[in-house]
Amino acid sequence: WILHDWGDKECLKLLRNCYEAISECGKVIVVESVLPELPTPNIVTATTLSFDVGMLHLLPGGKERTFKEFETLFVQVGFSAFKPICRVYNYWVIELLKNKEGMKPVKKKIEQDSNKFNYKIKCVSR
């Protein structure tokens, strides 16, 4: 619940640092409020819109975003895919995937070295 505190320029910097820090088969988990593309008369939309007004008032550049606005940020950084996993009230859990092979599924293969407590994780295409 960090990205809504910042403008696009700062979000790109933050996301780029995350992207560079994770492995080739890594992912980043984002938890954020997401604005609907078209407002609907329900409590989730009302709460998210009130957060957006709060961000505008409290933090210069801070704002709530739609999925399209988030996707624009994620693609500019280099993430190959993003998946909204679930929503709890007005908060979405979003998974960002670094997989350089696009949308092709990737699994992790764990290999054990000679020392039984030393493991390596490799990305393997399915």
From TrEMBL:
Any Pfam family: Methyltransf_2
Keywords from the UniProt entry: Methyltransferase, S-adenosyl-L-methionine, Transferase
Keyword 4Fe-4S attached: no
Limits of the O-methyltransferase C-terminal domain: 1-80
Coiled coil: none
PROSITE patterns reported for this sequence: SAM_OMT_II (PS51683)
Annotated protein name in UniProt: O-methyltransferase C-terminal domain-containing protein
Any GO BP annotation: methylation
GO terms assigned for molecular function: O-methyltransferase activity
InterPro entries, per database record: COMT-like, COMT_C, SAM-dependent_MTases_sf
Organism taxonomic ancestry: Eukaryota, Viridiplantae, Streptophyta, Embryophyta, Tracheophyta
